[in-house]
Amino acid sequence: MCFRLNAWENKDQKCLLSYRKSEVSTQFATDNEFMKKSLRLAQVLQRELKGKVISKVAKEVGLGVSLLHDWHSAARSPSARNMEQARKLANYLGLTLEELLFDERTDREVISSTSFTDRGVQYRVNIERLRKGDPE
């Protein structure tokens, strides 16, 4: 049984983000179906944000209300310029960036999660059970 610990902190965030980026890039580089993937951000947001106030979520995540509203209504798609905001939203929702953008579920299960704030900085720690045999 494997566990993955994700600790989101300001100092360590860049290292973890670069690891995730290289992991996703490697997967896409070897996956010829990358070009066939369709962006499903609006559908994911409509499902995940159901019953929530968009302006409140935007404030909690640190996004512009108009940006989140446009993504939610499919009026705009994320660009390279705002991938950092998409990653923040994915973290807030407990999703990977790929799950948020393409609605692709991974074989993982969050078995414990906690959030806390220290000196105005918000942290979240997830412990995930990965599929059996996963090398991570």
Overview of this protein structure:
The protein has 136 residues and is an alpha+beta fold. The protein has one domain: lambda repressor-like DNA-binding domains (434 Repressor (Amino-terminal Domain), Orthogonal Bundle), CATH 1.10.260. It has helices at 10-30, 41-48, 54-61, 65-72, 83-93, 97-102; strands at 3-7, 108-118, 121-130. Strands 1-3-2 form a three-stranded antiparallel sheet. Strand 2 and strand 3 (121-130) form a beta hairpin. The longest helix is centred in the first third of the chain and has 21 residues, at 10-30.
Reconstruct the topology from this structure:
Elements: E1 3-7, H1 10-30, H2 41-48, H3 54-61, H4 65-72, H5 83-93, H6 97-102, E2 108-118, E3 121-130
Antiparallel strand pairs: 1-3, 2-3
